[in-house]
Structure formats: C-alpha cells, structure tokens
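Shape is hard to put into words, and the shape of a protein is harder than most. The fold becomes a row of whole numbers, each drawn from a learned catalogue of backbone shapes. The outcome of that step, for a single protein, is printed below.
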Amino acid sequence: MNTLLDLHTHTIVSGHAYSTMQEMVKAASEKGLKMFGITEHGPAMPGSCSHMYFHNLAVIPRWMYGVELFVGAEINIMDTSGNLDLEQKDIDKLDIRLAGIHCRCFKKGTIEENTTGVMNVIKNKDIDIISHPADGTVDLLFEPIVLASKEYGTLLELNNSSLRPIRKKEKAHDNNVEMLRLCQKYEVPVIIGSDAHISFDVGCHDMALKLVSEIGFPEKLILNDKVDRVRDFINRRKNA
C-alpha cells in the first residue's frame, strides 16, 4: 500500500517529542506524503502545551513544502465519562481532532466503564479519530467500540508506534488483531497513524502494514491512500 497521509504526529511543543513543526512537515514532503497532521497532546499531558498554544493556530500556513497541513490536537480522554482536557473554544480552532487514553491522564475503571468512556467520545461530533484504542493502556471491549465507530463515523486508529517492541505494549498486537477483525466483519474503515515524536518516524507505518498483511485486512478499509476521501471526511465533520 502506498500511504499518502499521516495525521497523528507530535512536535517539541508536546514536551516529549524532538522535532519542530517545520522539520516534521519537511520530512513528510521528502517521504512523498500529500496530507499531514500535527496533533499536539492536550494540556493534561505533563510537559505539553497550554491552552494558549491552540489560540494562535491561524498563523500557521496550511501548506508547507507542497504538503497539505492539518493542525490539531490529540486530546486527552480524562475519565470513564469521556470528559476531555480541551475546552470547546479550543476544540473549535482545530483542523483535526484526535482523542485518546494516556495512563498519565486517564482515571480508569472497570472494562465496561472504560469502554463507556471511549464510546461517549466516539459519539462526540467534535472528535474525528480515536487514537491508539487498542494499545492496551486500559482494558476495553472492542465490539461495542467498533459498532459505535460504524454508527457515528468517528475513525479508529491503528497506531504504528504502539506495535513497536521497544514500546513494550504487551497487549497491543492481540488487541489490534481483535479490533481489525471486528472492523473487517462490520466493514468499518480504519486509519493508520505513525504517532511520530521525531521527524525520522514521520509516515512510518511499517508495523501496522505488516499486521494488516498478516491477517489479510482489506486495503479498501484503510484510508491512508485515500486523500480526497479523508479531506472530505475532515471538512464534513468540522462543518457539521
């Protein structure tokens, strides 16, 4: 598969990443990407940017080095109710809105309660993508999550970084296999994200592509080569 977009990446602004915005977008251009997302962590993540960062996004060019740029956030899901760490006025300024669970931010509960929290975010029209739902940070029930994705149109991410052995996400492989098989069963599309925290990892989808190949997941349900479709999806959600 020729991946043409990567919508989940971080710069030095997130506090634990190591390249600037221009370095990241230049890397995207050099790797032949047509569409690129910068999605800094929300303010609940230790060391990440404050709310003020999201107030000035209008100054950023949306085309750099021949790449269409979407500037957004990976918003933190805070609890089993699905509360988020960005206020609505901040979310309204974003081009693209990811939301995910991180151990340093999320107050977890039972598997059923955790699942309810994620499903409440899937139902939130202001969220476009659920980041790394199957990385094993908390236990989740994947069938209701996949069915909610199908009903509400919020995309589920196959996160490349969490599949890397160096991350030591012991449940990530099996969880992602389960999620993908359910997505195939119910014909629910997914999007692969590099979750790059340095420019060298921009567009790196190697582990994710290996997994989808191993289980025979159909390319028609992977959106990373479907630039026009993803652009229409983002714009439609933004203007809903």
Notes: The mean pLDDT is 97. The CA atoms of residues 42 and 222 lie 26 Å apart. The two ends are 31 Å apart (CA to CA). Strands lie at 5-6, 35-41, 63-64, 67-76, 97-100, 129-131, 155-159, 190-193.
